[in-house]
Design brief:
With 415 residues, this protein is of the alpha/beta class. The chain folds into two domains: 157 residues, Aspartate Aminotransferase, domain 1 (Alpha-Beta Complex), CATH 3.90.1150.10; 240 residues, Aspartate Aminotransferase, domain 2 (3-Layer(aba) Sandwich), CATH 3.40.640. The chain has a seven-stranded mixed β-sheet, sandwiched between helices. The radius of gyration is 22 Å and the shape is globular. Keywords: Aminotransferase, Pyridoxal phosphate, Transferase. Its EC number is 2.6.1.2. This is alanine transaminase.
């Protein structure tokens, strides 16, 4: 008799991660058949020819002989000192090495922090659209995501009044992703101050995903939340993967700021969970001090003439020339989140569109609904390819949307 199937956790059925999901699997099948694809689904700089800065590479190479043992569960002392010093320069209150946690990327620390925070049924206020790892980690740690809307017509900025209306007796935290993935929105100081005030009134933990903090365009500013939060407990996430183009090194950190007494139990819980996984990747931690104290290597890429800036320009200009697309220009991060409009949007389904674009035009994008939004007329692309490649991508997108619009017009004529 065949063995019975291995039962999996029921809550996994609630988790979505299309960035590396069904469409990415189909892309691998097509590549195995010899198809050459342009893959815009993952913000992975190394896959597009970017390299981590040389001084970070040297920092690891020079200390490779010291990387064999486990280190402290919160990270190498020198790395934590460098992170704390960086946050002190920003004005983060009570930033100290003892309140820094180094992890295998920000992803691991998001999971650990929610595991430390949530009891079954507790709620976390998340942006919609969100980076879907936040929703998945909330669900898999027995919490409930509650979404506050970041509407396209508001530049993808949230409404603080709506955030406060969603607070319940089970709410434990407000998550902010700034600059935002997938929209590229950068949150102004006045907006952040209002959200901090909500967290203070309701005694909520602020969880601030700031991994794209230095990736900004056209004079957009970045406002760290921790200095605004003062004594309010705040967990700020950063790392080497995006600003320093070192995704594969899996180096992220979280800094717990605010009143140490108020966050003492949470600190101990994070420390315990970190100890249970022993420690984070050690070699990459030797690059943290060099990254935070060394030269700026991202600014030129985001300035006019820089590769990221020109890639963003290619997307903005391609959308402006399109008969079927609209875009809130990203102010930061590595993505754009265009909307399909007009006749092409009639009966539009973002997942079907992404699959047809892959099958017929050899382009892989992420459906917008993967980011936990109620509408289905958006998709996400990364800004990492060469500008000319992005212009070609949007020519192919236009071809498919022309077909959609033509079919809609034909249906209307028959009706």
């Amino acid at each position: 008799m065949p063995s019975p199937p291995v039962k999996t956790r029921a809550r996994l059925s609630e988790v979505r991660y299309e960035i590396r999901g069904e469409l990415a699997r189909r892309a691998r099948e097509l590549e195995a058949q010899g198809r050459r694809l342009i893959k815009l689904n993952i913000g992975n700089p190394g896959a597009f020819g970017f390299r981590a800065p040389e001084h970070l590479q040297r920092a690891i190479a020079d200390r490779i002989a010291d990387t064999d043992p486990y280190t402290h569960q919160q990270g190498l002392p020198a790395a934590r000192e460098a992170i704390a010093a960086f946050h002190k320069r920003r004005g983060t209150p009570n930033a100290s090495p003892e309140r820094v946690f180094v992890g295998n990327g920000v992803s691991e620390l998001i999971d650990l922090s929610l595991r430390a925070l949530l009891d079954p049924g507790d709620e976390v206020l998340l942006p919609s659209p969100d980076y879907p790892l936040w929703s998945a980690a909330t669900i898999l740690n027995d919490g409930r995501p509650v979404y506050y809307r970041c509407r396209p017509e508001n530049g993808f900025l949230p409404d603080p009044d709506e955030i406060e209306s969603l607070v319940s007796g089970r709410t434990r935290a407000i998550v902010l992703i700034n600059p935002n993935n997938p929209t590229g929105a950068a949150y102004p100081r006045a907006l952040l101050e209002r959200i901090v005030a909500i967290a203070a009134r309701h005694k909520l933990l602020l969880m601030c995903d700031e991994i794209y903090d230095s990736i900004l365009y056209d004079g957009a500013g970045f406002e760290p939340v921790a200095p605004l939060a003062g004594d309010l407990p705040c967990l700020s996430f950063g790392g080497l993967s995006k600003v320093h183009r070192a995704c594969g090194w899996r180096v992220g950190w979280a800094v717990l700021s605010g009143d140490p007494v108020a966050s003492g139990d949470f600190h101990h819980a994070m420390d315990l969970l970190g100890a249970l996984r022993l420690c984070a990747n050690v070699p990459g931690q030797f690059a943290i001090e060099a990254a935070l104290q060394g030269e700026d290597t991202i600014g030129a890429l985001c300035a006019p003439g820089g590769r990221l800036y020109e890639a963003r320009r290619a997307v903005i200009e391609s959308v402006a020339a399109s008969r079927h697309l609209a875009l809130v220009a990203p102010a930061g991060a590595l993505y754009a989140f265009p909307a399909v409009t007009g006749a092409a949007a009639a009966g539009f389904d973002d997942h079907r569109f992404a699959l047809e674009l892959l099958e017929t035009e050899d382009v892989l994008v992420v459906p917008g609904s993967s980011f936990n939004v109620p509408y289905r007329n958006h998709f996400r692309v990364t800004l990492l390819p060469q500008p000319d490649d992005l212009r070609e991508v949007f020519r192919r997108i236009e071809r498919l949307l022309d077909r959609y619009a033509g079919a809609a017009d034909a249906r209307a004529a028959v009706a």
